[in-house]
C-alpha cells in the first residue's frame, strides 16, 4: 500500500462546520457524468476517498478511477499518486491526478462527494473530500506496523497540503518518502478546522486537543496490538501545541486509553512550534472582532495560556513521559506576512521571523542541544521536503533513526521491562 501552517491556502469560499455532500446516484457506461463543466485545478491536488470496502485492492481502485468520465483523453499515467490503507472497518485512499475525472471537480473545500462503486467492487457508496479533517491513514505496512506516526499540521493549515513538496504538489514526504526509510511505520495525519478566514469558529487549543486524543484512541483501537504500539507525534506550529496539550490531558486522565498513550509515546518531533508564542501581530489585525480572535491572542509571545501549558507539560513529562525522544526543528528564514491588498488573503506582506529559535526549542525538560536542529527554510516550508535526498529531510531521517535505536531502552527505563 503501498498548506502550509500560517501560509494560508489560496482564497476559497468559506466553509461551515457541517460539510455538504453531493450525491451521485448512477454510473453511465463512460463513468459518472457531471452536468456542468468545472475548470481543472491549476496544479494537481490530492483527494481523500473513504469508506472503501476492505475487499478492494489498489489495482481495482486504480482501474475504477481510470474508467470515470474525463474532459478529454487523459494521459496514460494520469494517476500521479495513489495510496490505500485500512482504517477502522474500511479503507481510505489518497489520490492525485494529472487530469481529474469530471465528477471529482465538483468536490471543493467544504463540499464532499458521495460516489457509488460498481457491483464488482461491492456496490457501496464511498465518500470523496479534499478537506482531510480527522484521521487520514497515509501508509500501512504490508505486515504488522511497529510504530504509529501521527502528524498534526499548524494554524490555518491543511492536513495533507502542509507537508507536500514545494516542487511536486503530488509528492508528500509523510506518505511517499518516509515508508522508503521506515517501512514498518504506520503513518497518519490528523486534520482540524482552524482556517482563520472562518471568523465563526471559536475553537480553542483545548478543544482541538480533546478531538485529537479521541481520534488517536480510535486509530489505535484497530487491533489487539494497537494500544501497545509505540507512537510518535509530529507537530508543526499550532499542531505541536495541540499535541502538547493532548499529552498533558492524557497524563491527567484516568482512562486506560489515555495512560496507554503516555506509556507508548516514544518520540515527539516538533517543527516551528511556538512554545513561548509567535510573532503574530499581523494576524491579530486580520481577525479582530471575530470569533477566532481569542485563539490568535493565545498564541502571542506574551501568552499566559502558553506559559501555563509549558509548565504543565514539564510536569507531565517528568511524571509520565520520562525518556521520550524529543527533536525540535526551527526556521532560519523569515516568512512573508499575510495581508489584504485587495480584500483577499495574500502572503505578500513584510517578511518576519514567525517563531524564534528560543520559542521553538526547550519543549521538554533537559532537552538535548544536539536535538535542536536548524532548518534552512521559512516557517511554512519547515515541513515541505522536495524528495528523499532533501538535506532538510535527511536531518529528520537521522533523528528518527536515532529514536528507533533508543526506543527499546526508553520503554525499558519507563516501565521497568518494556511494554
TrEMBL record:
It is found in: Endoplasmic reticulum; Membrane; Mitochondrion. Residues 10-21 have a biased composition (Low complexity). Residues 1-45 are annotated as: Disordered. Keywords: Endoplasmic reticulum, Membrane, Mitochondrion. It comes from the Eukaryota. Residues 22-35 have a biased composition (Polar residues). GO terms for cellular component: endoplasmic reticulum; membrane; mitochondrion. InterPro entries: AB_hydrolase_fold, SERAC1. This is DUF676 domain-containing protein. It comes from Sphaerosporella brunnea.
Amino acid at each position: 500500500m503501498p498548506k502550509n501552517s500560517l501560509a494560508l491556502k489560496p482564497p476559497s469560499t468559506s466553509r461551515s462546520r457541517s460539510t455538504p455532500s453531493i450525491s451521485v446516484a448512477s454510473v453511465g457506461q463512460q463513468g459518472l457524468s457531471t452536468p456542468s463543466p468545472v475548470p481543472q485545478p491549476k496544479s494537481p491536488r490530492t483527494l481523500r476517498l473513504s469508506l472503501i470496502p476492505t475487499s478492494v485492492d489498489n489495482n481495482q481502485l486504480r482501474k475504477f478511477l481510470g474508467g470515470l468520465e474525463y474532459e478529454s483523453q487523459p494521459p496514460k499515467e494520469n494517476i500521479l499518486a495513489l495510496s490505500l490503507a485500512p482504517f477502522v472497518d474500511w479503507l481510505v485512499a489518497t489520490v492525485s491526478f494529472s487530469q481529474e475525472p469530471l465528477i471529482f471537480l465538483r468536490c471543493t473545500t467544504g463540499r464532499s462527494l458521495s460516489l457509488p462503486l460498481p457491483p464488482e467492487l461491492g456496490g457501496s457508496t464511498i465518500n470523496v473530500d479534499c478537506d482531510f479533517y480527522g484521521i487520514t491513514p497515509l501508509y500501512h505496512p504490508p505486515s504488522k506496523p511497529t510504530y504509529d506516526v501521527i502528524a498534526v499540521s499548524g494554524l490555518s493549515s491543511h492536513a495533507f497540503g502542509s507537508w507536500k513538496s514545494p516542487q511536486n504538489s503530488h509528492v508528500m514526504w509523510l506518505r511517499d518518502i518516509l515508508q522508503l526509510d521506515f517501512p514498518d511505520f504506520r503513518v497518519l495525519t490528523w486534520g482540524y478546522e482552524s482556517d482563520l478566514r472562518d471568523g465563526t469558529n471559536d475553537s480553542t487549543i483545548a478543544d482541538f486537543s480533546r478531538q485529537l486524543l479521541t481520534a488517536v484512541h480510535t486509530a489505535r483501537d484497530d487491533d489487539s496490538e494497537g494500544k501497545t504500539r509505540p507512537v510518535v507525534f509530529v507537530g508543526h506550529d499550532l499542531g505541536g501545541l495541540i499535541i502538547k496539550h493532548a499529552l498533558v490531558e492524557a497524563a491527567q486522565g484516568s482512562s486506560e486509553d489515555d495512560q496507554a498513550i503516555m506509556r507508548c509515546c516514544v518520540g515527539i518531533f516538533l517543527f516551528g512550534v511556538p512554545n513561548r508564542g509567535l510573532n503574530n501581530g499581523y494576524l491579530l489585525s486580520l481577525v479582530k472582532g471575530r470569533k477566532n480572535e481569542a485563539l490568535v491572542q493565545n498564541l502571542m509571545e506574551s501568552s499566559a495560556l502558553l506559559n501555563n501549558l509549558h509548565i504543565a507539560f514539564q510536569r507531565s513529562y517528568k511524571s509520565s513521559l520520562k525518556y521520550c525522544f524529543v527533536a525540535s526543528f526551527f526556521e532560519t528564514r523569515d516568512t512573508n506576512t499575510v495581508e489584504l491588498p485587495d480584500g483577499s488573503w495574500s502572503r505578500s506582506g513584510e517578511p518576519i521571523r514567525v517563531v524564534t529559535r528560543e520559542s521553538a526549542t526547550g519543549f521538554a525538560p533537559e532537552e538535548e542541544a544536539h536535538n535542536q536542529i536548524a532548518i534552512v527554510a521559512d516557517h511554512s516550508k519547515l515541513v515541505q521536503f522536495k524528495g528523499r535526498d532533501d538535506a532538510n529531510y535527511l536531518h529528520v531521517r537521522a533523528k528518527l533513526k536515532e529514536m528507533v535505536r533508543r526506543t527499546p531502552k526508553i520503554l525499558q527505563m519507563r516501565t521497568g521491562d518494556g511494554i
